[in-house]
Amino acid sequence: MAAERGARRRLSASCFWLSCLLLLLARLAPGAGAARSGAPLPSAGVGVRTFTPFYFLVEPVDTLSIRGSSVILNCSAYSEPSPKIEWKKDGTFLNLVSDDRRQLLPDGSLFISNVVHSKHNKPDEGYYQCVATVDSLGTIVSRTAKLTVAGLPRFTSQPEPSSVYAGNSAVLNCEVNADLVPFVRWEQNRQPLLLDDRIIRLPSGTLVISNVTEGDGGLYRCLVESGGPPKYSDEAELKVLPDLEETANLVFLKQPSSLVRVIGQSAVLPCVASGFPAPAIRWMKNEELLNMESSERLVLLAGGSLEIRDIIEDDAGTYFCIADNGNETIEAQAELMVQAQPEFLKQPANIYAQESMDIIFECEVTGKPTPTVKWVKNGDMVIPSDYFKIVKEHNLQVLGLVKSDEGFYQCIAENDVGNAQAGAQLIILEHDVAIPTLPPTSLTSATTDHLAPATAGPLPSAPRDVVASLVSTRFIKLTWRTPASDPHGDNLTYSVFYTKEGIARERVENTSHPGEMQVTIQNLMPATVYIFRVVAQNKHGSGESSAVLRVETQPEVQLPGPAPNIRAYPTSPTSVTVTWETPVSGNGEIQNYKLYYMEKGTDIEQDVDVSSHSYTINGLKKYTEYSFRVVAYNKHGPGVSTQDVAVRTLSDVPSAAPQNLSLEVRNSKSIMIHWQPPSLSTQNGLITGYKIRYRKASRKSDVTEILVTGAQLSQLIEGLDRGTEYNFRVAALTVNGTGPATDWLSAETFESDLDETRVPEVPSSLHVRPLVTSIVVSWTPPENQNIVVRGYAIGYGIGSPHAQTIKVDYKQRYYTIENLDPSSHYVITLKAFNNVGEGIPLYESAVTRPHTDTSEVDLFVINAPYTPVPDPTPMMPPVGVQASILSHDTIRITWADNSLPKHQKITDSRYYTVRWKTNIPANTKYKNANATTLSYLVTGLKPNTLYEFSVMVTKGRRSSTWSMTAHGTTFELVPTSPPKDVTVVSKEGKPRTIIVNWQPPSEANGKITGYIIYYSTDVNAEIHDWVIEPVVGNRLTHQIQELTLDTPYYFKIQARNSKGMGPMSEAVQFRTPKASGSSGKGSRIPDLGHDYKPPMSGSNSPHGSPSPLDSNMLLVIIVSVGVITIVVVVIIAVFCTRRTTSHQKKKRAACKSVNGSHKYKGNSKDVKPPDLWIHHERLELKPIDKSPDPNPIMTDTPIPRNSQDITPVDNSMDSNIHQRRNSYRGHESEDSMSTLAGRRGMRPKMMMPFDSQPPQQSVRNTPSTDTMPASSSQTCCTDHQDPEGATSSSYLASSQEEDSGQSLPTAHVRPSHPLKSFAVPAVPPPGLPTYDPALPSTPLLSQQALNHHIHSVKTASIGTLGRSRPPMPVVVPSAPEVQETTRMLEDSESSYEPDELTKEMAHLEGLMKDLNAITTA
Questions:
Q1: What is the end-to-end Cα distance of the chain in Å, rounded?
Q2: Are 687 and 652 contacting, i.e. CB atoms less than 8 angstroms apart?
């Protein structure tokens, strides 16, 4: 800069005289010349210059002038010698020598005579600044002052004729441009108007006259005197009217308007109202009444205006003007905003420094609005660069001082209100002059060392072998050896001087402690050459400099910056378009972009590669919020990600119907309908209402429609016909339209309305059953069924029924009173109630049983003498209860009702109660809900939790017991809580390794499959900048290695399950130890991780390699195991070969026996019925074979088999199977038997009758443990189905079921109808079955290939027993023992006759009915 170059020339010319002058001043007046800032004088020694006082005594201020007048802008500065004063206007120096109108006064002030100002010529108006210069010191500048010249008079509003009633206030407007307001005067009848407390002029120029009298009438005008001839406004007449006898409405003649004022100024908030009676004015601030008498700064002016004098910051707020005349009140408000000029909280301080040092001038300011700060050196603006930097918003940092940096530095603060300046002096001393102590120091940490005064003695020589041991893009690490003069160098400190190549400004970095011989220079520029040299210091001073070292930093790989202007907007309910622009940073061409998007509330982020600047993502969820971000890629890799931008897809019509629709008949003409909204995932927008459609069941074309708005979930349908069946359905609405409707649901209105003009009668009976800690109460309704019953009130207590009262619904017929005391006498009362009141009570007492009593005693209370009322016969409970998992919090419960017709249509008023609970914790209570259909949607469940469900049915006063339970486990959900108790500890003996411990999240919502550990040294860094350590499985500890010593780290942990990632834990801080435990220089015991286990021999090999002893022992073990295995295999093979030979002979004889006849006869006396056990959901046949081959016959929904249901065949069995397979090859020409029979021997099948309807088939894949190849699927014998399905099923007697070593597969058959739960198998002979050879063979097991191939099994429904259908064979394979095969051949002549089979069928049918009745009860 120009001033810097001028200062260098002046300093070089007068260096000698300046030094002499400063030495003389130091000797004559060592205590004079204190700095303006008030800092104490340094205790300067010989050769140390002192700071020179140089500051402004007076600075110019903002001034308002008029054309043709004279103006003085004051300025005066103090210094020894006296400074030279110059002036700048709008940043340019004024040439005052040749200016006739502007001249410099002796004290430095600027005098301007005959101010010039016109529309097109404004030479004097502008910003002025005073500049003071001392040639030997430097330059300072004053604050900037604005000179405003009032323009030509221009009226924006003028007075208008008006009338006013005596005693009221009058307002005459006269508004001019703001700079002319001080020159406005008023005249009445062309005579100057004197202002007083009753007549005032507002700051805008408007005239206000309060309490008007007749003398105030006349002609008024305003005039502006601004240097030329006065300019007059129009004249307006003010008429004063006599008092009114009638009231006049209140109106504002002048209302307050919002103002902005500076602290210390005054503000006037005008408020003038008119009306009759005359109004009184009061003021409020922020809803608090202002008390004018308690404050000298608040003044109520004429007419009611408020003046606030000497404004402070607390005066800011909203002011309310309230006019009240007793008849009415009106109100107006205005905002007062208070601003403050810049003010220094901390001014720059004078600084001593030496060349190459770094310094900081501190400057802290306040003001409103927040001031901006700029720095000036010797009157010239400091432009930020590599060596002049603005730090911490306001402070100036100068790096690598040079001699020309000396001078005066000023901090100038400026905002909309004004500006201020404060300065300090910088003196640069020679290197051999000690820096005096200055409180406080402003040297940076890199240059505050080695400032102690030096003593005489030898200085160190130059450091040796300076090298750059590490060179990066922005830092260089230097190392060196001690000087030759001091080989040990324990007490030496070092300074590293460095600069850019070609730049004379040198910077310095000092070592942190004596003896250290390395320094890392940071904040360098990439691909830049730097010059380094090192100087050693001892107690005597600085020694010789080393030879310079030239080093170039590495070039920086520039990645793309964030893509600007990223925008996302929805284009449909399932698509969003994202657009962005090319990043402005980064070298190299952008190759492509990656667009990331994620559904809100989840942690699964997806991405797509994009080559353009926009992309439309389809397949999104409807009305769901997503976040999007873009990352640009160039040849160096991914760049900086954009900020996330969130957008919600458009809404759509609901995709599902409302849930849990139910009907409640209120009376003969109204039905209440209830429903629940569709599930959140199917609403597709905000539900705005529901559409209810209903019709008579007899007239299905005549449909009535009702719209329900808002979140209403019930509606009373009135005006219906008596005794008529109606159908109802409900659909949800969004702004896009109507969603699907529910199925039609029917209800029938009552034939006649019940009476509710009186209370109900007494209940007809009461039945109590005491237990140990509870009493079961059941009852029947009153005999008079024509009176409305809204519910029942049950009262109970020990000795008195008034201790507790419970109210239940009118549909309920029993209640269990819980939490009672054993062996206690309770009195119970029952009353029916309606809206009129409670009816007559019915009393009973009961004694709870003692703890040891488990018997059941029933007590009957008879209302009428000699007329016992029997307990209602219980209904059959629902059957076939199934739980279908829909989501992590929703399960659908379905069931069947035995008491309904075959089509399962509900035509009466029965309803069902569903109850559910979970066993965790053990004391969980049941939750209940009612339904009028054969299904119910249970919502609000916990994720990954097992629930049990049961159902009961109620019809009138009859109820069933609870059904058998169904179980369901909700799906998993991402964890909703972070891992707990995160702790970090250092590993003993390995300071660079830490161990992180934690506990699983309290809300895991599933099986934890792993954790992710995030750690960073910056807790505020973006999460994608943290280092990630994955932990697989459910381990709760992890080691992290190779950390930096004495460094604070922050750790966060995130759990994951199969559904995704959970939230992160709070950051945990841990500082690594300061020193490692290494025993030698440069060596460290390697960290082998948490999975490392030392060898058994005690070897400490860092790589875990075994010692020679370990290798020999391992070899011996391997050879021994191999030899033993070979011997065992040979023995087993020989044994199996001999055994298979004997089996083959017997099986061939069996095949020939089968070929001889198609009718197999046996003795029915030896037949035993199959061993059956009953489950309410499915029929399970206990295994009649112990084959590991899993082939259950399933119905509508296959029931998965777990791994425990399949026991693998051992080696001997596999070998046996292979031997059989080989022995039967080549016999296809004979009458074939089934694959299973050929492989296992002559195991018969069990046949189950099915209905004749087409089966609903599904495919179920079951892993097979069979190793039979496809080529062996056809063997010597073939099984055929009986088309009549009558008697051809066969089974083995229980005496043949004993087969050791095999698991027991079970055939599960789920009934398609609850009334047909149990299919009765036919009773065949316990021998070989034979079928009509003309019929096709239907083996259950398909051909099976090697290596456990997956095979499919088709399943069918069990239908009505009365229908005929060919039976499907349920094959239960097994390999019979030798004794079983022999017995089968001996009994081959016995079989059932048709009449014997009929008897056995009837016997089994009766057995099934008995079992069904037992389970139902």
A1: 106
A2: no
| Average pLDDT estimate for 371-386 | 86
Sort 791 into a burial class: Cβ within 10 Å, 0-12 / 13-18 / 19+: middle
Residue 1195: band (very low, low, confident or very high) from pLDDT cuts 50, 70, 90 = very low
pLDDT for the residue 255: 86
pLDDT band of 1292, cuts 50, 70, 90: very low
Structure tokens, 1072: 């690594």
Give the Cα separation of 1384 and 771 in Å (integer).
57
| Whether pLDDT at 206 is above 50 | yes
Classify each residue of 721-738 as buried b or exposed e, where b means 16 or more C-beta atoms within 10 Å of its C-beta: eeebebbbbbbbbbebee
Q: Which two tokens stand for residue 641?
A: 């990600």
Q: What is the pLDDT of residues 401-452, one digit of tens each?
A: 888 888 899 999 999 888 899 999 898 888 777 777 655 445 555 454 444 4
Type and span of the H or E element at 844: strand 842-847
- Greatest Cα-to-Cα distance within the chain, rounded to the nearest angstrom: 150
User: In the chain, pLDDT over 70 holds for what percent of residues?
Assistant: 71
Concatenate the DSSP letters of all residues of 342-407 into one string. Answer: EEEEE----EEEETT--EEE--EEEEESPPEEEEEETTEEPPP-SSEEEETTTEEEE-S--GGG-E
List Cβ neighbours of 537 (8 Å cut-off, separation of 6 or more). 450, 460, 492, 493, 494, 495, 543
Average pLDDT over residues 286-301: 83
CB 649 within 8 A of CB 699: no
Query: Any idea how long the chain is?
Result: 1417
Question: Which residues lie closer than 8 Å to 555 by C-beta, 6 or more apart?
Answer: 473, 526, 527
CA angle in degrees (0–180, nearest 5) for 1093-1094-1098? 160
Contact 1090, 1006 (CB under 8 A): no
CA pair distance 77, 81, nearest whole angstrom? 11
In tens, the pLDDT along 831-842 reads 999 888 899 899
Question: From CA 435, how far away is CA 875, in angstroms rounded?
Answer: 105
Query: What six digits make up the tokens of 622?
Result: 């409807």
36-38-40-46 Cα dihedral, nearest 10 degrees: -10
